[in-house]
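> forwarded from #structure-qc
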């Protein structure tokens, strides 16, 4: 289908989506039937006693809810090259590595052609709604995407991050062309072995094609902010390269150098123009539209752990709309952003009922383990944990994501991502999520904003080495801030955790005073470099917001780089 298609038929895509979501319950039954028929011969399902049944009732009665830990032995056998069907009917040829920033180490997750097809369906669906709102002509996209090297498992399967497996798939480039979103950088830059060199070349390609750039994107908002923070440091060097038509010696890989040589020609007029634009900006405000006058929007995942980067991204974007990308994980996709005009903080995701079979565990107080409900049975305003059954061998898999149902599009729910369920700051009866941490940091950061400073990045940890245990918040700040203000920030953080269990524990000293540790500039870049060294890619990197005991190395990097620390006197 894709080969014949020059440009996507937006209205047909939207029409198909409307038809499907009007009958979400039946589509879900049919999707489950298809998954079970395709994979019924797999050992995992054979052991469940389904005996060929494909209805949701039998499926739920026979197949238990699982976490990654439960499936690990099966996935390992697949990775080790077992010949018999273990999780899927057709052989798995590729393994995805999760980012590893949540638990400290990457997980193996099966990846197959069916998962690639659902990826393209999500891309096409959200593009259709986005393009209706913000039409783009046939220009180019400045995409800060990075594909790490695919390795081989013991059994000879390709293994790479989920984004690498997508970017290296032949269908990806065709899809980008069909969506008029062709990357302005050559493939050699995307697959370049050194992230820093690829980032520099992405920026250079963007400047060379500056008038053709229609959108700026990356997998995560963090990568876009990082790219333009880097631009602030290297813009003069980029101008030198453009003026002379010669690539800086900092780019050392021959494949990248030769690809860039084909694009780079001496252009003193463009170098002068960029210098003029940069010199007239005040603190880099509006940098993106200044450099790329025809940019229509900025696109990437901006919800959840990416929300803290929105303030800086808006600073660079000025009036250019920010649109949050779709909702998925290494394990599979869930929903598309079909309301692109909403600000990222209000983004919801409409679940596509044919890309997997979905269940939801209600998160109600005082209920130990409530029964999961189906896609069309969720209630508006309620929070749930997502369970996914995919075409890639995951059955009733607990994703660990908490979502809130904000409404329905026809009969499919629109979900707001809330947080990761297991990312909690907790010492005894207190329970603070990633979202609670983010709100506390935002509140306290207002105090340093008055001094024209910002929190570049942050993380946290529960220190129980002494009794009582206490919360530790790590901040990296953009410049010097007085001790007086930072002491007040520390108190503000402590007061901003409003969870009843936390407040009552603090009042009776069952939880000790919160500690704010300010780290040296560049510390969070060291954490990024640590994950890159483990084989992660920037496209998939998320700063760990809560560093648990399994994540020793990251905790060590944070603790080794503390410049100042403060204890709260708020209680």
């Amino acid at each position: 289908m894709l080969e014949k298609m020059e440009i996507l038929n937006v209205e047909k895509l939207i029409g198909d989506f409307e038809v499907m979501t009007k009958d979400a319950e039946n589509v879900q039954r049919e999707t489950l039937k298809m998954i079970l028929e395709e994979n019924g011969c797999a050992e995992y399902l054979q052991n469940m006693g389904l005996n060929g049944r494909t209805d949701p009732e039998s499926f739920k009665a026979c197949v238990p809810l699982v976490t990654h830990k439960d499936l690990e032995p099966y996935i390992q056998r697949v990775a080790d090259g077992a010949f018999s069907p273990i999780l899927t009917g057709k052989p798995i040829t590729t393994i995805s590595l999760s980012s590893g920033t949540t638990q400290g180490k990457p997980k193996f997750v099966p990846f197959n052609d069916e998962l690639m097809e659902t990826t393209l369906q999500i891309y096409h669906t959200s593009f259709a709604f986005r393009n209706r709102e913000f039409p783009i002509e046939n220009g180019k996209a400045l995409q800060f995407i990075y594909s790490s090297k695919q390795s081989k498992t013991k059994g000879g399967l390709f293994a790479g991050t989920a984004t690498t497996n997508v970017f290296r798939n032949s269908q990806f480039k065709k899809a980008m062309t069909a969506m008029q979103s062709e990357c302005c950088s050559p493939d050699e830059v995307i697959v370049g072995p050194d992230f820093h060199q690829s980032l520099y070349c992405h920026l250079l390609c963007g400047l060379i094609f500056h008038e053709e750039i229609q959108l700026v994107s990356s997998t995560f908002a963090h990568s876009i902010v990082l790219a333009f923070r880097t631009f602030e440091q290297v813009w003069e060097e980029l101008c030198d390269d453009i003026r002379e038509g010669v690539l800086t010696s900092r780019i050392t890989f021959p494949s990248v150098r030769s690809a860039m040589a084909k694009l780079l020609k001496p252009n003193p007029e463009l170098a002068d123009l960029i210098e003029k634009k940069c010199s007239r900006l005040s603190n880099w405000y509006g940098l993106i539209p200044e450099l790329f006058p025809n940019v229509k929007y900025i696109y990437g995942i901006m919800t959840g752990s990416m929300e803290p980067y929105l303030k800086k991204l808006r600073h660079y974007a000025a009036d250019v709309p920010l649109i949050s990308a779709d909702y998925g994980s290494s394990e599979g996709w869930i929903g598309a952003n079909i309301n692109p005009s909403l600000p990222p903080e209000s983004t919801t995701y409409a679940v596509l009922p044919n890309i997997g079979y979905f269940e939801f565990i209600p998160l109600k107080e005082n209920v130990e383990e409530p029964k999961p409900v189906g896609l069309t049975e969720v209630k508006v305003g309620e929070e749930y944990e997502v369970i996914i059954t995919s075409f890639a061998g995951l059955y009733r898999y607990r994703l660990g994501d908490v979502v809130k149902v904000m409404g329905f599009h026809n009969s499919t729910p629109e979900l707001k991502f809330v947080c990761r369920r297991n990312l909690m700051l907790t010492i005894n009866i207190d329970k603070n999520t990633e979202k609670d941490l983010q709100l506390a940091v935002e509140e306290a950061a207002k105090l340093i904003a008055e001094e024209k400073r910002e929190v570049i990045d942050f993380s946290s940890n529960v220190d129980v080495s002494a009794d009582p245990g206490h919360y530790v918040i790590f901040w990296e700040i953009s410049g010097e801030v007085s001790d007086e203000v930072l002491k007040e920030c520390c108190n503000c953080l402590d007061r901003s955790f409003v969870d009843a269990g936390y407040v009552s524990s603090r009042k009776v000293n069952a939880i000790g005073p919160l500690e704010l540790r300010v780290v040296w500039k560049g510390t969070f870049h060291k954490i990024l470099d640590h994950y890159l060294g483990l084989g992660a890619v920037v496209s998939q990197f998320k700063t760990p917001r809560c560093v648990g005991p399994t994540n020793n190395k990251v905790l060590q990097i944070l603790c080794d780089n503390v410049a100042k620390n403060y204890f709260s006197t708020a209680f």
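QC bot note: Residues 265 and 303 are 39 Å apart (CA to CA). The two ends are 64 Å apart (CA to CA).
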